[in-house]
Amino acid sequence: MPLQKLSALIDAICNFVICNDSSLRSQPIIFNPDFFVEKLRHEKPEVFTELVVSNITRLIDLPGAELAQLMGEEDPKLPGANSTASGFFRSLMSLKRKEKGVVFGSPLTEEGIAQVSQLIEYLHKNLRAEGLFRVPGNSIRQQILKDALNSGTDIDLDSGEFHSNDVATLLKMFLGELPEPLLTHKHFHAHLKIADLTLFDEKGNKTSTPDKERQIEALQLLFLILPAPNRSLLKLLLDLLYQTAKKQDKNKMSAHNLALMFAPHILWPRNVTANDLQENITKLNNGVTFMIKHSQKLFKAPAYIRECARLHYLGSRAHTSKDDLDLLTSPSSKELQPLKSQKRSRLDTCHQEETQQRTEEALKELFRHVHNMPDSAKKKKLIRQFNKHPTALTPGSDVPTSPAPRRTRSRSFSGLIKRKVLGTPVILERKSRDATPEPERVSKENVHLLQKCGSPAHMSQAKLKSLEGRKEESCRRMRAHLLSKDSSSL
């Protein structure tokens, strides 16, 4: 039976891939990148629809009524719905569907897809027929084939009883007799907006060049919220048309020619005429042409949708399903939980140590750069800033300093002798020189503070100057003492 073939095919596709490694043979490996997307779609359809629609509205501008139609909150408002011609057309189509069978004229089901998939599989083997989908077949053979499909009997299309044009025409007939187009009435306005997506120039003005990347992304999102049977059949159909267009040198059917044949069946609203669509006909036909050319990219979820679906299940324990909870409570998972926590804590510790090491290396490099700078006020200021922060590296830390420290040059003969013979007293002398301006700076700040206060109880400016003179005298004595020590050692 065709239904049994389809179920076997689905089982073969959905089964897990098992590794050749004997140690991993018992562990199933998930190979479907859209696993969490499909899981979210089936388990929480409302959350999934809201996620997808929010991203669709980011790409195309849908007014309130059209957005409500896309969400299924309002009935679709289609062109030509109130005209008398459409009313006559609707009654004619209802008469044609009075004697509907299991497949033709009925809402799309998995059983109907299983029957129609026989036609698609046969056409894949006969893509070289010239005028495929354009040249009509024999009406008597088509009726025999239609009755066989409606009755659910297994058909041997390879027997030679039917021609490829019979099968192609019957496939179009099946799509045309569906109660609504394959892409549904709810999505009609969204497809019109996707066709208008164009690139912008440097000034931000719209151009006539289609924005293919945004169109592909919008179609990927729109196909995600199609009903499951519609999405399955659409994928089979677009893949068939894509392969047909690749053989256009033999069958003379390009992607645009195929779009002219199939747009009225899969995208046009039911019971409308070409006059009702008017200027939208070109947009719809070009839209189907675009779908055929890029069909191999349209049934993959965008990367950010995959990530959102993955985080929905793995980001927090509150969103786990019943199967996941049963898996977590199994004995093997209980034994693995402490190991996972230990591994996670070890990874966190290694990450912290690596970050700390990088920070220390950066600080060492910064201090080394400052230390090698020529003596200047800027260098002294930077060194003081290092000294103020205890976490920063200072000259006394473990930084590998330069092998020959820079010393201030002295033009005197005694300074030359000290540089040649002694190294440490010069450093002391330089420290004392660097320390001498400090009291002067402090004293000036004190003077400024006293002038701001203006209190008569404080010392006068003359007394402060005398104190500064005493401090300078003590500094001179210290220098003389150090010089006398140096000379005695010499």
Can you give a write-up of this model?
This protein has 490 residues and is mainly α. It has 23 helices and two strands. Strand 1 (198-200) and strand 2 (206-210) form a beta hairpin. Helix 2 (35-43) crosses helix 3 (45-59). The longest helix has 41 residues, at 331-371. The chain starts with a helix and ends with a helix.
Number of strands: 2
Outline: elongated
**In percent, how much strand structure appears in the residues?**
under 5%
Separate helix tally: 23
Enumerate the spans where pLDDT stays under 50 for 5 or more consecutive residues. Answer: 3-10, 12-27, 83-99, 317-336, 392-404, 424-429, 435-459
Salient structural properties:
490 residues, mainly alpha, two-stranded antiparallel ribbon, 2 strands, 2% strand, elongated
What's the SSE blueprint?
Layout: H1 2-14, H2 35-43, H3 45-59, H4 64-70, H5 84-96, H6 110-124, H7 139-151, H8 164-176, H9 188-195, E1 198-200, E2 206-210, H10 212-224, H11 228-246, H12 248-251, H13 255-266, H14 274-277, H15 280-293, H16 303-314, H17 322-328, H18 331-371, H19 377-388, H20 413-421, H21 424-435, H22 437-453, H23 461-489
Antiparallel strand pairs: 1-2
